[in-house]
Amino acid sequence: MPGPTREIELAHLDRPTAPETTFAVVSDAHVTADAEGTWKVFHRTESHLEAAVDDVNRRGVDGLVFAGDLTKDGTPAEFDRVAEILSGLDAPYLAVPGNHDVPKAFDAHETPPLSAFVAAHCPEELPYRTRLGSIDIVALNSASDIDGTLRGGHAGRISEAQLDWLADAVDPETPTVAVFHHPTTHVGDLVERFPRTDHYQLRNADAVTEALDAAGVELVFSGHIHWPTIARVAGVSAGRENDGGSVNSSDGVTQVTTPAACSFPQGYLLVRVTPEGTTVSMVPLGDDDARTEAYRYAVTDGARDGAVTESVDDGYFDSFPLLDERALEPTTSD
Predict the structure, then answer these.
(1) Which of 32, 60, 144, 226 lies at a C-alpha separation of 20 to 30 Å from 198?
(2) How far is it, in rounded angstroms, from Cα 96 to Cα 1?
C-alpha cells in the first residue's frame, strides 16, 4: 500500500536551536533521460526533481542541501540535465557527491572528475563550511577518496584528512549541521527487514561519529539507502556525566537518512530550526498515481530484498515521528 500523501513529521528534536531557519534536504534523484523502469523509476526522475524545485520555491526556504546521487550514472548528459533543472531554484543551493556522481572503474563512459562536481555544485572545495540562515552546514565527501579505494564499488568513507579539517571547522558559537552521502548508521539496525549490505554504512562510521561529536556537530543528513530513518548515535561524549552527576541525554550525534526523490516513497526532507528545537518532516513528491507506480515497481523488483514494500505494509509510516524529544507537559490533578 502506497505511503504518505502529505507532509508528515519524521522527528521532533531538542537540538539544534537557533533563530528560525528552514531548509530542504534532497537526495538520490538519480536523474536520467535515457532509462526507464526499475524500482528507481528512472523515467520519472526528471519530473520528480522538477517537482522538488517547484515545491521548495513555493515554501521560500533559506536553502536546499543535496545529499548526493544527483545522477543515475554520472554521465555528462545527466549532469547537464540536473543543472538545467536546478537553474530554476530560487534558494541558495549546495551539494555533496554520491557514489553515482563520481568516476568508477566500471564506468563505460567518461564521468566528469570530482573537481567538475565541486565547480558546479559546491560553494568551495570539499570539505567546506557555509551558512544557511542562522546555522552552519559542514559538507564532507564520502563518495570518493584520493587513493582511489572507492572506485571499485558503491561503498563510502570519509578520509582522515577531512576529519582533521572538521575538528577546526566548526564554530562552537553556531549550531552546526553536517551533510554527506553515506550514513553513519546502518538501516538494518534500525529497520529489521533491511539486508545487512556492507555499503549501506560508512566504512569508518565509528571514527566519523566520534569526530562529529567531538567537533560539536549536532545533526547529520545523509542519503544512499533511499529510506527515511533517524537515530541518536553515540559519540565520544555520549554517556559522560554532567556536573550534576547524571548522563547528559543530548550527547551524541543525531543521524537522519533522507528518502530518495526517485524511488518509493519519493520525497525530500523539510527541516525547521527554531529557538525551541528542530522539526524534520518528509514531503512527498508526485501524486497518488506516481506513488502507486513506484510501489508497484518496488514490488516487482523486490527493492532492498523486499524490505521497502514489506516495511510499508507493516505500517512504517504510521509510526512517525520516529523520534520525539519534546518534553511532555506535566499533568496536574485537582
Answers:
(1) 32
(2) 33
| Alpha-carbon distances of 131 from 63, 65, 91, 170, 209, rounded to whole Å | 9, 11, 13, 11, 22
Q: Which three cell numbers stand for residue 286?
A: 508526485
Q: Binning pLDDT at 50, 70 and 90, where does residue 239 land?
A: very low
Q: Which residues pair with 281 in a beta bridge?
A: 9, 270
Phi, psi of 92 (to 5 degrees): -55, 150
Distances from the Cα of 276 to the Cαs of 67, 163, 246, 249, 256, in angstroms? Answer: 26, 30, 23, 16, 19
Q: What are phi and psi of 125, to 5 degrees?
A: -60, 145
DSSP structure class, residue 185: S
Locate cell 560508512: which residue?
A: 202
Helix (H) or strand (E) holding 230: strand 229-233
At residue 247, the pLDDT reads 30
Residues 22-80 pLDDT 10s = 999 999 999 999 999 999 999 999 999 999 999 999 999 999 999 999 999 999 999 99
Integer Rg of the chain from CA: 19
pLDDT > 80? residue 133: yes
| Separation CA 59–CA 230 (nearest Å) | 24
Residue 235 in contact with residue 185, Cβ under 8 Å?
Answer: no
- Residue 125 CB coordination number (10 Å): 11
pLDDT tens-digit readout, 265-314: 999 999 999 999 999 999 999 899 999 999 999 999 999 999 999 999 99
Mean pLDDT of the chain: 92
Cell of 6: 502529505
Give the number of residues written for the chain: 334
Stated as kind and residue range, the H or E segment containing 139 is strand 135-139
- Residue 327, pLDDT above cutoff 80: no
Would you say residue 242 has pLDDT above 50?
no
The angle, 0 to 180 degrees and rounded to 10, between the axes of the packed helices 114-121 and 76-86 is: 10
Q: Which three cell numbers stand for residue 265?
A: 516513497
